[in-house]
Amino acid sequence: MKTTERDLNPNENERLLAILIDGDPSTEDAAKINNLMTRDDAFRTAYLERLDIHAMLAWQFHAADAAKVQRISRWEFLRHQALRWAAVILLVAGMASYFVLRGETASAACLRLIQANETSGDRTYRISAVYDSSVPKPWDTGPRDPHRAPLPSINGATLHVGSGDRFVLFRKYNNGEALIAGFDGTHAWSIRGDGAVRLSKNKARFRGDIPGVERGVPFTDMRSNLQHIQEAYTLDILAPETLSGSSTERSHHLHGVKRSPDFRGPAFIDIYFDASSGVIQRMTFDNMPLQNGGPVRATLELIEQRNQPSTWYEHAAHHEAGREVDRVD
Amino acid sequence: MSMDPSSQQFTQSLVAAQPRLFAYVITLIRNPDRAHEVLQKANVVMLEKLDEFATQKIDFIPWALKVCYFEVLADRRDRARDKHVFDDAAISCLSEHTAERGETFLERQRALALCLEKLPANQREMLKKRYAKGGSVDALAKELKRPTASISQTLYRIREALLECTQRRLAAGEHA
Asked: Of B20, B48, B129, which to mutate for an interface test with A (greatest number of A Cβ within 10 Å)?
C-alpha cells in the first residue's frame, strides 16, 4: 500500500529529513527512509526540495575554499590525464587559456578581463538603471548635504573609459542641464551646465553614484574591482550567448552571486565579454543595496570602441575656453 | 594553444553544468565534501570521453548526468564497507526525479541568495561554518558548546525558512 504524508506523523517525517541532511540514520531509520523514498511521492518531494537548499548552500559556501579546491582539482586532473587519451592532453594544453573546472575558469576569466581592459583602448558604455519606485530619489528630494547639488539619474548616462583609470561621464538633469564628470589621470573634475569647473586631486571625488561593486568606477581600476569580485562573489562561467544588438557572435558570461551581505555591492553580477578579445560587452549589477535612492539594477552596455585624443579626458575638452575653475579638496 | 570548436563547446558545456551536476550528485550522496570528490572524478571521466562526445551528437546534460550517476555507484562500491543509507532502489528512484528538477537550478540559486541576505547574521554564520569545506554539525556543536541535536535542529529550521522564502520568491518572480 502506498504511504502518504498524512499516514505518517509529520514530526517523524521532519526527524527523518533532518537526519538525512545532517545526521547519520540508524539501520531502522534507513529502512524507513528507503521505503518512503520509493513509495511516497510527498516524502520524496520534501527530500528533494530540502536537498536542493542543502546543495545550493554547499555550492555557495564551499566556494569560500575555492583556492584549496582548485589546487586539489588540478592535481587530481593532472594525475589522471598522464595516462589518458590524446584528446584529453590537448584539452589540458588548452587549459592555459580556458580552464576546465569552475573556480579556475572564473579566475582565468577575471585575469583575461583585467588584461584586456588594460590594453583595449577607449570604450563607451551606455548606462541604463532601474529604480525602486517606493524610494525617494535625490534629484526629487535634494541631496542629504544641502551644500552639494543633487545628482541627476544615472539612467541614460554615457560613460567613456580609457587606460590609466581615466573616464568621462555624461548625464542630464530633468531640465536638460548637463552634468559632466571625469578623471584625467591626475585630477577629478565636474562641470554642471555653464557653471564653474570643480577640480580635485581626490580621484573618487566626483564619481557620485556610478554603479559598481566597490567605490571605484566600473572598467577603471579593473584589477582591484575584479579582485574584490573574486573575493566577495561565487563565480561561475555560464554557457556563451549572443547578446542582442551585439556585433560579437557569442559573448562569454561570468555570473557572480554575492557570498554574504557583509560585502558591499549588488547581490548579482553578470559580465559578458568578447570571447576572443576579452573586452566587456555588458555588465549588469542586480539587486543593488538601496542607498540614498540609488538604482536597484544597472546595466552598462558597450556602444563604441574608438580611440580619443590624448587630452579628451581633461575638463578643458568639454567646455569653452576661459571657464572659471574652483579647486576643491 | 587554442582548442578546436568541439573541444571548446564541450568545455563550455561542462563548466556551465557544474552547479547542476553538483546538485544532482549531492542528492544521492548527501555529504558535500564527498559530492565534490565524486563530481571531480566524473569531470575527469567526461574529459576522457571527449572524443565520444565530439563524434556523436550527444545531448550534453543527460549524458553528463549519466556519467555522474555511474560515478556515484562507483563511489558506493569503493566504500562498500561504509554504511549506505540509500539502497539501490532508492538511489535509482532519486536519480530519476533529481534529473527532472535540474533545469531551474540557476533561478533557484538566485532566489536563495536574496533570501540569505535577509537572514540574521548569526544564522548566516552558522550556515557558513556548516557548509565550509570539511564543516560538520559535530564541529559546529563543539565550537558553539551546544548539543549536536540542538545544532542539527537549528540548521533544519534555518533551511526550512530558506526553502519557504525561496519558493515564495520564485512564485512571485523575484529571482530575476
From this structure: B48
* pLDDT at residue A145 greater than cutoff 60: no
Candidate from A96, A100, A260 with C-beta closest to B15: A100
Residue tagged 575555492 (cell numbers): A66
Distances (CA, A) of A11 to A5, A6, A26, A327, B150: 11, 11, 17, 70, 15
Rounded to two decimals, the ipTM of the complex is 0.90
A120-327 under CATH 3.20.20.140, yes or no = no
Size of interface A-B (CB pairs under 8 A): 215
d(CA B114, CA B105): 14
- Domains defined along chain B, listed by start: 5-85 (1.10.1740), 105-172 (1.10.10.10)
Tell if the CB–CB gap between A59 and B19 is shorter than 8 Å.
Answer: yes
DSSP 8-state class, residue A250: -
Over the stretch A297-322, which tens digit does the pLDDT of each residue have?
888 899 999 888 889 999 999 999 99
Domain residue limits, chain A:
5-62, 65-113, 120-327
C-alpha distance from B138 to closest chain A C-alpha (Å): 9
